[in-house]
Amino acid sequence: MHRFKSLPCFTAGVCHFRPVNFSRRQDGCANWQWKWQLPPRGRAASGVSCGRTPLLNLSKPEVKKANENGDVQKEPRKHKPGLMPGLEDMLFYTITEGHEQIPIPKFISALKSTGLLTSDPRLKYCMDLLRETVQSSSTGVTMDRHLFRKFFGSNIVLLTQAFRKKFVIPDFEVFSSHINRLYDNARKRTSGKVADYIPQLAKFSPDLWGVSLCTVDGQRHSVGDTKIPFCLQSCIKPLEYGIAINEFSTDYVHQYVGKEPSGLRFNKVFLNEEDKPHNPMVNAGAIVVTSLIKPGANKAEKFDCVMHFLNKMAGNEYVGFSNATFQSEKETGDRNFAIGYYLKEKKCFPEGVDMIATLDFYFQLCSIEVTCESGGVMAATLANGGICPITGERILSAEAVRNTLSLMHSCGMYDFSGEFAFHVGLPAKSGVSGGVLLVVPNVMGIMCWSPALDKVGNSVRGIDFCEELVSLFNFHNYDNLRHFAKKLDPRRNGTEVREESVVNLLFAAYSGDIAALRRFALSAMDMEQKDYDSRTPLHIAAAEGPNGIRSQ
User: Fold this and answer.
1) DSSP labels for 457-499?
2) Which residues of 158-188 are buried (b: 16+ CB within 10 A; e: fewer)?
3) pLDDT digits (tens, 9 = 90+) for 133-149
4) Which residue has the higher pLDDT, 16 or 307?
5) What pLDDT is attached to residue 74?
6) Single pTM value for the model
7) Contact 29/495 with Cβ under 8 angstroms?
8) DSSP category for residue 68
């Protein structure tokens, strides 16, 4: 396909190409035969007169018409012929593997295989148009290239990235199958106990288990109980901290809270040597950060401010509130009230803060509900530097995201933070409701949820899943060190990796680089790899290599 990249530039509006034969090589790559088809006499395929060169067409002035009320309105601009029609046709034939039509269900299945959902906000207009067409048709609808252009012409760049495997996870189906296997393995872990010190949390079954991920390109995969709402609890702490940094600054926020791990239980009544909470991930620090949000506003405005941020971080997917959990938190929150009075005694709050109102607000934030699916998008927003992957809207500043991920990495997993940083090496935050918010920077966000907790308050299945994920993939912060043991890298296309390996090996054989060949052999590379003509390095060395290498 690469040889056709520039063809539409010279042909759009004059003729179009169509495949006449399609096959697939042993290495999985597509093998096409193309035929150029001229338009009917007197007009071009794109509707432009053959007497004019499309690339030289000048844009026409906008036509204005008056409506019934006499108001002048602009007519919507029509899609101009040019580069895009050629690209749309090329993409259509790539999806259909050379066929002139494709059933709608088959197209939807192909779309989902790339990781894009039909509910993706970026595809809303296209999918609504497609749905209306299907509903108005009495028979099954098949899509040709003209309908494809009508439905998806406005999303051609996104779909081209998806179907040409240019997303951050190119082989998303393969990656999803690995995630399903890790999910099934973690399900077998039956130890742990549901938190019961908050009565409302004790009502959840320990058998519930869900995992949902969203990449920085908006690829989605969910498995298990991913649509059941649960309270964020301590998972709200990094999010409210990010909001505070976004609204103020790092220096201002850290006048009131530290950055160091405490080494103590998350609900300990204790401060550091400067009489500040150790960090925003323990209860004392989170309560102080809560007091910084929307100063001077009333309770309703403060709550609406946080909900607005969370809704946008979740791409407008489910974010709710459990009043029952909120009331349960207040009735059983003696330890947090003790922390609040201790903070007030040590003058940890900004001047004029109502401590009781702050605790109420803190209990409200802990009682905000998400699902695994909406939580996965929130995590992906952090992984994407503060920009929601499925809406493209910036929610948090880069500074806020960097600081948030740093503290999640060092302090996010209660008394297990050091162990988690050592074994998993990724920013994460857990909550006593069973959630684990995991961020793989520049790749994806994951929300795991299982209510059964270990002795320090982390989800048993969630911890197991995260550890197994990093054991399989090179997501640990230090997995990419030179000469490190190889793990799977889902960010690389398998075909591209093989091609790069073959090229390096054959070039070393051709140029007589014996040292490089020895390094390849010692690194367990397959020395009998073949190129498209089935030539091995030995063939290349014997036929074209220097005399020195032939005698080695």
Assistant:
1) S-BHHHHHHHHHHHHHBTTSTTTTSTTPPP-B-TTS-HHHHHH
2) bbeebbeeebbbbbbeebbeebeebbeebbe
3) 888 876 667 888 888 88
4) 307
5) 46
6) 0.78
7) yes
8) T
